[in-house]
Design goal:
- Keywords: Oxidoreductase.
- This is NAD(P)-dependent dehydrogenase, short-chain alcohol dehydrogenase family.
- GO terms for molecular function: oxidoreductase activity.
- Belongs to the short-chain dehydrogenases/reductases (SDR) family.
- By secondary structure, this protein is of the alpha/beta class.
- The chain has a single domain, classed as NAD(P)-binding Rossmann-like Domain (Rossmann fold), CATH 3.40.50.720.
- Helix content is about 45%, strand content about 15%.
- The chain has 8 helices and 7 strands; from the N terminus they run βαβαβαβαβαβαααβ.
- It has a 7-stranded parallel beta sheet, with helices on both faces.
- α2 links the parallel β2 and β3.
- α3 runs parallel beside α4 and α4 runs parallel beside α5.
Length: about 250
Amino acid sequence: MVKYNFSGQAALVTGAGSGMGLTTAKAFAEAGASVAMADINDGAKRAAEELSAAGHNVIAINCDVADEDQVRAMIEQTVSTFGRLDFAFNNAGVMQTNKFTSEMSSEEWDRVQSVNLRGVWLCLKYELKHMEQQGSGSVVNCSSVGGFVTTAGLGGYISSKHGVIGLTKTAAVEYAPKGIRVNAVCPGTIRTSMVESMLNSEGFSMEEFVRLIPLGRLGRPEEISNAVLWLCSSDASYMIGHALPIDGGLLVI
């Protein structure tokens, strides 16, 4: 991958305990950034300890992104620790069980929306407040190829990811004049524990799913982190409000 130099800058990654979030947090740290790794579980804490032992300036924050007080505190801790916030990857998300629209419970609907859409909005709300005072910043939200198309049985998830793209575009035009860029990545099927659990629970084999992808394989978390770092870098300085599919060709067919 391209090697960036983010020394003297600070990044926040949510859902940093595993998968794409963990890989992106590591990539920011290896590029020299100070990194706040946030997650609702202990995975981020363990990873932060390893990165700190390797000489990186990293902290772990326990945060439920659906809780406004916790999100506010997460941003405050990041800024108080590092003195600034230059980059954010709003990645935390959950999947729903496969159920048709009329069969989905209101409790599961609320759970999916509260993390996938409300959580992104809350993170944006407090990140943008600080970045506006700072006069600069770049935010990348995590949507999905599900933000462009649909799949039967995933109405809650699909609607949340469509919402992330709409929110990204709106925030982008609001904050571009203030020196802040907001974009989104839209991963296809990436080899993470969440995707593997989803496939197993729905009775799909990995081989069956791979046959649907023109490139003939699942994506790697590093292929998402590469895009996130690029969108945050000066190489993408003219990118505003873009929703970037990284999907092995799923949206082409």
